[in-house]
User: What shape does this take?
Amino acid sequence: MWILGRLRKIRKLYAIEKRIEKLPPEEKTRQRQQLAQPVLDDLKAWLEKNSTRVPRDSLTYKAIQYTLNQWELPLPAMESEAKAGRPQ
Assistant: This one.
């Protein structure tokens, strides 16, 4: 049950992307920073809190650790599309 709330957050991120898909690149970036960043921040806090609550040999633990290990890599969706090297 506790993981269902996180799946809702991920679905929310997809819904944000769907909602902004036809906006100009600069507006997409602004919308992502405004709408998606709080969802991402909440998700990261949840991952950090719950990484110690699951068995270390479980697939859930491995998935949480993988996600946290990748977190500091640049999130192109949160940068301007031009800066991230995407065609406009």
Q: What stands out?
A: The helical segments are 2-20, 25-50, 59-70. The CA atoms of residues 59 and 85 lie 34 Å apart.
